[in-house]
Amino acid sequence: MKEGIAALNRFIQRHSLHASVPVNINALFDIYEVRILPLSHATLGFAYLGPVYKLVGLNCSLHIYKRRMIFCHEVTHGILNHPNSFHLCKVNAWWYNRFELEAQEGAALMLVPLQPALKLAALGVSLRQMQEHFEVPEELVTLRLKMARLTF
Amino acid sequence: MVETFGQYLKRIREELGYSTRKVKMVTARYPEKEQHVSDSYLSLLERGKVKKPSPGKLFGLARVYGVPYEDLMKRVHYLTGRTEDLAVRLPNNLRLLSPRMRSYLARIAELPQEDQDIIASVVEPLILREEEELKRKRERRRRNKQGSSDERRDSGA
Predict the structure, then answer these.
(1) Contact (CB<8Å) B103/A40
(2) Which of the residues A35, B38, B40, B111 could staple to B115 if both were Cys, CB 3.0 to 4.6 A apart?
(3) Which residue of A has its CA nearest to B107?
């Protein structure tokens, strides 16, 4: 994952993702086409990341914070060159293989900048408030802090 | 009693009078490594120890047994609903084995039918369009290469 983190950091810098909080991901919509679709509760989203077309599909019933997370999760599959060009994000399935876990960690890296998160943690801000601050689900804040070896 | 996938494979093999070793030898001649089926793997398949072989292995078996590839794909539930239509619509079976299509078909089969339909309506045209574009690009590159080598030959003459 070390090389993966370097690649993700390059990606974050190239698109100035951490220039603002909450992270503005609008720049990525020029690269990845996004479709909001009426998928069932079992499917959170999917991505087709081919050599020519890059498309991310998101479940329309998801809260905007979760949509941001799933989008970045899918984008990470492409940045880390995970095998296969079609990726599926099923409900509660982050842990079922290494690639899903890495993609989830990538989403946390992208959407939760470490320094602001550490500052808030030092101030004793609750996870719920941090979730509102970064506009991501609580689980992603927890994961980011865990990655930085901090626990709540 | 309903015939299982393993029993079906065994029945066809025995009807053809092939041993598992013979199947291994035939598939070993195929240039695509993913289509090679070892005798031990085939035995596991026939005994039902392996429930879902890869599409590549299925293609290898379809070639040896002379049965339609789509039929084997359907029996292990790779193809359902729209994906089945896609397999029939595609110009040849080999196309299904392109890594893009293979990964797409294998993953989409895990989903509920309604999600399969929605995703297929968005992703399938994209994959097909992309494959066409890549094919055109390859042809253009090949033509350019040929043109420049002809030019070199002419200038040399």
Answers:
(1) no
(2) B111
(3) A88
A55-to-A74, A142, B5 alpha-carbon distances in Å: 9, 28, 35
B85-133 confidence digits (pLDDT tens): 555 444 444 444 566 676 677 777 777 878 888 888 888 888 878 888 8
A49 sits in the region (left: phi over 0; alpha: psi -120 to 50; else beta) called: beta
* CB-based contact, A36 to chain B, within 8 Å: no
Helix/strand/coil percentages in chain A, nearest 5: 55, 15, 30
Structure ipTM over 0.90, yes or no: no
- Share the mean pLDDT of chain B: 79
Does the CB of B133 have a partner CB in chain A at under 8 Å? yes
Q: Report residue A58: phi and psi, to 5°.
A: -125, 145
- Which position has the token pair 């993966």? A4
Q: How far is CA A34 from CA A46, A83, B80, B93, in A?
A: 10, 21, 26, 30
Calculate how close chain A gets to B133, using CA atoms only, in Å: 8
- CB proximity list for B13: less than 8 A, separation 6 or greater: B20, B23, B42, B46, B65
**Contact state of B119 with A57 under an 8 Å Cβ cutoff:** yes
List, for residues B62-83, the tens digit of each pLDDT value: 888 888 777 787 788 766 555 5
What pLDDT score was predicted for residue B93? 46
- Please state whether beta strands A54-59 and A33-37 pair in parallel, antiparallel, or not at all (unpaired): parallel
